Inverse folding.
């Protein structure tokens, strides 16, 4: 897991070519022009999903993990907190390989507060719970970059 400020994102270049592709796009594109849904960057190697949601209580949120992709979470508006736990600390509940989704249950090890100034990069070992209220429920506009690992 990498939790940092967007202004410092270039520091993480050079870790992998697909992560570099996603970071370079994030740093140079006008994210407000992204269409809702999937936006191509480099075929299945790197792309970005654009969506909106209202944050919810932790009890209503779900854990998600991935096998093939890492994520870069970027808020365009609103705020939330994201729970993160290591895969070894949780119990696997469901696997949907066609969606690169693995569900889990268990306790949150770390809470990460997210605003439009923050980025959170998670890898397959970083299971995450998104959409959680940080204060009061709010509308979040989000871009989630996916990069092949």
């Amino acid at each position: 897991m990498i939790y940092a400020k967007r202004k410092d994102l270039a520091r993480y270049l050079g870790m992998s070519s697909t992560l570099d592709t996603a970071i370079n796009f994030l740093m140079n594109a006008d994210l407000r022009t992204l269409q809702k849904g999937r936006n191509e960057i480099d075929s299945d190697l790197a792309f970005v999903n654009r969506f909106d949601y209202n944050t919810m209580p932790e009890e209503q949120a779900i854990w998600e993990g991935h096998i093939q992709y890492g994520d870069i979470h970027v808020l365009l508006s609103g705020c939330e907190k994201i729970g993160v736990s290591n895969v070894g600390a949780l119990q696997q509940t469901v696997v949907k390989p066609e969606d690169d989704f693995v569900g889990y249950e268990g306790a949150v090890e770390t809470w990460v507060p997210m605003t439009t100034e923050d980025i959170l990069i998670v890898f397959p070992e970083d299971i995450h719970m998104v959409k959680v209220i940080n204060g009061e429920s709010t509308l979040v506009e989000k871009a989630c970059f996916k990069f092949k690992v």
